[in-house]
Design goal:
This protein has 256 residues and is α+β, with helices and mostly antiparallel strands. Helix content is 22%, strand content 27%. It has helices at 15-25, 44-49, 116-138, 171-181, 188-192, and strands at 2-7, 29-33, 52-57, 65-70, 75-79, 92-97, 100-106, 142-147, 186-187, 201-202, 214-215, 218-222, 230-235, 251-255. It binds one DNA strand of 18 nucleotides through residues 9-10, 12-14, 34, 36-37, 60-62, 109, 111, 149, 203-207, 244, 246-247.
DNA sequence: ATGTCCTCTCTTAGAGGA
Protein backbone atom coordinates (compact mmCIF):
# COMPACT_ATOMS: atom_id res chain seq x y z
CA UNK A 1 0.00 0.00 0.00
CA UNK A 2 1.47 3.32 -1.09
CA UNK A 3 0.53 6.30 1.10
CA UNK A 4 1.45 9.83 0.07
CA UNK A 5 1.24 13.29 1.57
CA UNK A 6 1.16 16.51 -0.44
CA UNK A 7 0.76 20.10 0.69
CA UNK A 8 -0.87 21.37 -2.50
CA UNK A 9 -1.06 25.08 -1.59
CA UNK A 10 -4.52 25.54 -3.11
CA UNK A 11 -6.35 22.42 -4.30
CA UNK A 12 -8.19 24.20 -7.12
CA UNK A 13 -5.25 26.25 -8.37
CA UNK A 14 -3.18 23.05 -8.19
CA UNK A 15 -5.70 20.66 -9.75
CA UNK A 16 -3.86 20.04 -13.07
CA UNK A 17 -0.61 19.32 -11.21
CA UNK A 18 -2.38 17.12 -8.64
CA UNK A 19 -4.16 15.07 -11.33
CA UNK A 20 -0.98 14.68 -13.36
CA UNK A 21 0.93 13.43 -10.30
CA UNK A 22 -1.90 11.03 -9.28
CA UNK A 23 -1.95 9.59 -12.79
CA UNK A 24 1.83 9.26 -12.81
CA UNK A 25 2.38 7.64 -9.40
CA UNK A 26 -1.05 6.15 -8.54
CA UNK A 27 -0.76 6.20 -4.74
CA UNK A 28 -3.40 4.16 -2.88
CA UNK A 29 -3.96 6.81 -0.20
CA UNK A 30 -3.21 10.53 -0.39
CA UNK A 31 -3.25 13.09 2.42
CA UNK A 32 -3.62 16.67 1.19
CA UNK A 33 -3.00 19.89 3.10
CA UNK A 34 -3.58 23.58 2.44
CA UNK A 35 -6.69 23.08 0.32
CA UNK A 36 -7.40 26.83 0.60
CA UNK A 37 -10.99 26.08 -0.40
CA UNK A 38 -14.30 26.15 1.44
CA UNK A 39 -16.07 22.82 1.98
CA UNK A 40 -18.31 23.24 -1.09
CA UNK A 41 -15.49 24.14 -3.47
CA UNK A 42 -13.48 20.93 -3.09
CA UNK A 43 -12.99 19.36 -6.56
CA UNK A 44 -14.68 16.09 -5.61
CA UNK A 45 -15.90 15.17 -9.10
CA UNK A 46 -12.52 15.65 -10.77
CA UNK A 47 -10.95 13.35 -8.16
CA UNK A 48 -13.73 10.76 -8.54
CA UNK A 49 -13.11 10.82 -12.30
CA UNK A 50 -9.43 10.19 -11.53
CA UNK A 51 -10.43 7.15 -9.45
CA UNK A 52 -10.24 8.59 -5.94
CA UNK A 53 -12.82 8.74 -3.17
CA UNK A 54 -12.29 11.62 -0.77
CA UNK A 55 -13.15 13.04 2.60
CA UNK A 56 -12.17 16.59 3.40
CA UNK A 57 -12.45 19.43 5.86
CA UNK A 58 -12.40 22.73 4.00
CA UNK A 59 -12.09 26.30 5.15
CA UNK A 60 -12.40 29.60 3.32
CA UNK A 61 -9.01 30.96 2.13
CA UNK A 62 -6.77 29.04 4.52
CA UNK A 63 -5.80 25.58 5.71
CA UNK A 64 -7.99 22.60 4.80
CA UNK A 65 -7.11 18.88 4.77
CA UNK A 66 -8.31 15.87 2.77
CA UNK A 67 -7.77 12.13 2.50
CA UNK A 68 -8.12 10.38 -0.87
CA UNK A 69 -8.21 6.64 -1.50
CA UNK A 70 -8.23 4.54 -4.64
CA UNK A 71 -10.33 1.35 -4.65
CA UNK A 72 -10.67 1.38 -0.86
CA UNK A 73 -13.32 2.43 1.60
CA UNK A 74 -12.54 5.50 3.72
CA UNK A 75 -14.01 5.20 7.22
CA UNK A 76 -13.68 8.62 8.78
CA UNK A 77 -12.70 8.40 12.46
CA UNK A 78 -12.20 12.06 13.36
CA UNK A 79 -12.09 15.59 12.02
CA UNK A 80 -10.39 18.24 14.11
CA UNK A 81 -7.84 17.59 16.82
CA UNK A 82 -9.31 17.31 20.35
CA UNK A 83 -8.34 19.65 23.17
CA UNK A 84 -9.39 23.16 22.09
CA UNK A 85 -13.07 23.62 21.31
CA UNK A 86 -12.67 27.18 20.02
CA UNK A 87 -10.06 26.16 17.43
CA UNK A 88 -11.79 26.56 14.07
CA UNK A 89 -8.83 25.91 11.77
CA UNK A 90 -9.26 22.90 9.46
CA UNK A 91 -6.02 21.12 10.20
CA UNK A 92 -6.74 17.49 11.06
CA UNK A 93 -8.72 14.67 9.51
CA UNK A 94 -8.37 10.96 10.24
CA UNK A 95 -9.66 7.75 8.69
CA UNK A 96 -9.42 3.99 8.93
CA UNK A 97 -8.42 2.62 5.53
CA UNK A 98 -7.43 -0.94 4.67
CA UNK A 99 -6.63 -1.76 8.29
CA UNK A 100 -4.54 1.35 8.98
CA UNK A 101 -5.49 4.50 10.91
CA UNK A 102 -4.31 7.45 8.84
CA UNK A 103 -4.10 10.89 10.42
CA UNK A 104 -3.67 13.77 7.97
CA UNK A 105 -2.41 16.93 9.62
CA UNK A 106 -1.42 20.47 8.79
CA UNK A 107 0.46 21.94 11.70
CA UNK A 108 0.35 25.73 12.19
CA UNK A 109 3.33 27.58 10.70
CA UNK A 110 3.91 29.67 13.84
CA UNK A 111 5.57 32.71 12.28
CA UNK A 112 6.16 35.46 13.12
CA UNK A 113 7.84 34.18 16.25
CA UNK A 114 7.74 34.81 19.11
CA UNK A 115 4.07 35.76 19.34
CA UNK A 116 0.51 34.41 19.43
CA UNK A 117 1.01 32.31 16.29
CA UNK A 118 3.93 30.48 17.85
CA UNK A 119 1.90 29.95 21.03
CA UNK A 120 -0.93 28.45 18.96
CA UNK A 121 1.56 26.17 17.21
CA UNK A 122 2.96 24.97 20.55
CA UNK A 123 -0.57 24.33 21.90
CA UNK A 124 -1.36 22.41 18.71
CA UNK A 125 1.80 20.28 19.15
CA UNK A 126 0.77 19.58 22.73
CA UNK A 127 -2.71 18.51 21.58
CA UNK A 128 -1.15 16.33 18.88
CA UNK A 129 1.08 14.75 21.53
CA UNK A 130 -1.98 13.83 23.60
CA UNK A 131 -3.92 12.47 20.63
CA UNK A 132 -0.93 10.51 19.30
CA UNK A 133 -0.59 8.84 22.72
CA UNK A 134 -4.29 7.92 22.65
CA UNK A 135 -3.92 6.39 19.19
CA UNK A 136 -1.01 4.22 20.32
CA UNK A 137 -3.14 2.83 23.15
CA UNK A 138 -5.48 1.10 20.71
CA UNK A 139 -2.65 -1.00 19.29
CA UNK A 140 -3.80 -0.49 15.69
CA UNK A 141 -1.35 0.38 12.91
CA UNK A 142 -1.24 4.19 12.68
CA UNK A 143 0.33 6.60 10.19
CA UNK A 144 0.44 10.27 11.21
CA UNK A 145 1.42 12.26 8.16
CA UNK A 146 1.29 15.73 6.70
CA UNK A 147 2.94 19.12 6.79
CA UNK A 148 4.36 19.33 10.31
CA UNK A 149 6.01 22.71 9.71
CA UNK A 150 8.86 21.37 11.84
CA UNK A 151 12.49 20.97 10.73
CA UNK A 152 13.56 18.09 13.00
CA UNK A 153 17.37 18.54 12.91
CA UNK A 154 20.21 20.65 11.46
CA UNK A 155 20.49 18.00 8.79
CA UNK A 156 16.99 18.78 7.48
CA UNK A 157 17.66 22.35 6.33
CA UNK A 158 20.06 23.72 3.72
CA UNK A 159 21.48 26.39 6.02
CA UNK A 160 20.55 25.85 9.68
CA UNK A 161 22.09 29.11 10.92
CA UNK A 162 19.61 31.08 8.82
CA UNK A 163 16.64 29.41 10.53
CA UNK A 164 17.48 29.55 14.25
CA UNK A 165 14.76 32.10 15.11
CA UNK A 166 12.16 30.72 12.72
CA UNK A 167 9.05 28.99 14.10
CA UNK A 168 9.85 25.92 11.96
CA UNK A 169 13.18 25.42 13.69
CA UNK A 170 13.09 27.02 17.15
CA UNK A 171 14.33 24.77 19.96
CA UNK A 172 10.96 24.58 21.76
CA UNK A 173 9.22 23.54 18.52
CA UNK A 174 11.76 20.83 17.74
CA UNK A 175 11.64 19.66 21.34
CA UNK A 176 7.85 19.29 21.15
CA UNK A 177 8.18 17.29 17.92
CA UNK A 178 10.85 15.00 19.40
CA UNK A 179 8.70 14.51 22.49
CA UNK A 180 5.99 13.02 20.25
CA UNK A 181 8.52 10.79 18.46
CA UNK A 182 9.72 9.59 21.87
CA UNK A 183 6.33 7.95 22.49
CA UNK A 184 7.54 5.27 20.10
CA UNK A 185 6.89 6.74 16.64
CA UNK A 186 9.28 6.20 13.74
CA UNK A 187 10.18 8.96 11.25
CA UNK A 188 9.82 6.78 8.13
CA UNK A 189 12.04 8.81 5.79
CA UNK A 190 14.91 8.96 8.29
CA UNK A 191 14.50 5.29 9.14
CA UNK A 192 15.19 4.32 5.51
CA UNK A 193 17.60 7.16 4.68
CA UNK A 194 19.49 8.08 7.87
CA UNK A 195 22.39 9.72 6.02
CA UNK A 196 20.84 11.37 2.98
CA UNK A 197 20.00 15.02 2.50
CA UNK A 198 16.26 14.95 1.84
CA UNK A 199 14.01 17.98 1.43
CA UNK A 200 10.24 18.20 0.93
CA UNK A 201 9.78 21.98 0.60
CA UNK A 202 11.50 24.64 -1.46
CA UNK A 203 10.45 28.27 -1.06
CA UNK A 204 9.10 30.15 -4.08
CA UNK A 205 11.63 32.89 -3.31
CA UNK A 206 15.13 33.23 -4.69
CA UNK A 207 15.10 30.18 -6.94
CA UNK A 208 15.17 27.94 -3.85
CA UNK A 209 14.34 24.81 -5.86
CA UNK A 210 17.00 25.51 -8.46
CA UNK A 211 19.57 25.97 -5.68
CA UNK A 212 18.19 23.00 -3.71
CA UNK A 213 17.77 25.34 -0.74
CA UNK A 214 15.11 23.17 0.88
CA UNK A 215 13.62 22.03 4.14
CA UNK A 216 12.33 18.65 5.31
CA UNK A 217 9.03 19.48 7.00
CA UNK A 218 6.56 16.90 5.61
CA UNK A 219 6.83 13.73 7.67
CA UNK A 220 5.49 10.22 8.12
CA UNK A 221 5.30 8.99 11.70
CA UNK A 222 4.69 5.26 12.00
CA UNK A 223 3.37 3.36 15.01
CA UNK A 224 5.74 0.61 16.26
CA UNK A 225 3.69 -2.19 14.69
CA UNK A 226 4.16 -0.68 11.20
CA UNK A 227 7.95 -0.37 11.17
CA UNK A 228 8.54 -3.88 9.83
CA UNK A 229 6.03 -3.23 7.05
CA UNK A 230 7.93 -0.15 5.77
CA UNK A 231 9.52 -1.12 2.46
CA UNK A 232 10.18 2.10 0.57
CA UNK A 233 9.86 5.86 0.93
CA UNK A 234 10.70 8.91 -1.11
CA UNK A 235 10.03 12.44 -2.26
CA UNK A 236 8.66 13.08 -5.75
CA UNK A 237 10.86 16.12 -5.98
CA UNK A 238 10.58 16.47 -9.75
CA UNK A 239 6.94 17.52 -9.24
CA UNK A 240 8.23 20.66 -7.50
CA UNK A 241 9.85 21.58 -10.82
CA UNK A 242 6.61 21.42 -12.81
CA UNK A 243 4.83 24.54 -14.05
CA UNK A 244 2.46 26.00 -11.46
CA UNK A 245 3.81 23.69 -8.77
CA UNK A 246 3.19 23.87 -5.03
CA UNK A 247 6.15 24.95 -2.89
CA UNK A 248 6.08 21.41 -1.39
CA UNK A 249 6.85 18.16 -3.16
CA UNK A 250 4.77 15.00 -2.60
CA UNK A 251 6.24 12.51 -0.11
CA UNK A 252 5.31 8.82 0.03
CA UNK A 253 5.88 5.52 1.77
CA UNK A 254 5.23 1.97 0.67
CA UNK A 255 3.90 -0.54 3.23
CA UNK A 256 3.67 -4.29 2.64
C1' DA B 1 13.52 44.38 3.55
C1' DT B 2 13.22 41.53 -0.19
C1' DG B 3 11.96 37.76 -3.09
C1' DT B 4 6.92 34.46 -5.02
C1' DC B 5 2.52 32.42 -5.15
C1' DC B 6 -2.16 31.47 -3.45
C1' DT B 7 -6.88 33.21 -2.16
C1' DC B 8 -10.34 36.69 -1.29
C1' DT B 9 -12.37 41.26 -1.75
C1' DC B 10 -14.86 47.29 -0.14
C1' DT B 11 -12.15 43.05 -7.18
C1' DT B 12 -8.58 43.56 -12.01
C1' DA B 13 -4.86 45.94 -7.00
C1' DG B 14 -3.95 45.17 -2.58
C1' DA B 15 -3.98 42.51 1.69
C1' DG B 16 -2.92 38.49 4.38
C1' DG B 17 -0.69 34.18 4.88
C1' DA B 18 3.02 31.09 4.02
Amino acid sequence: MRIATYNVNGVNGRLPVLLRWLEETKPDVVCLQELKAPQEKFPEQALLDAGYNAIWQGQKSWNGVAILARDMEIKETRRGLPGEEEDEHSRYIEAFINGVVIGCLYLPNGNPAPGPKLEYKLRWLSRLNAHAAELLKFGLPVVLTGDYNVIPTDFDVYKPERWVDDALFRPEVRAAFHEIIAQGWTDAIRKLYPEEKIYTFWDYFRNAYGRDAGLRIDHFLLSPNLVDRLKQAGVDRHVRGWEKSSDHGPVWIELT
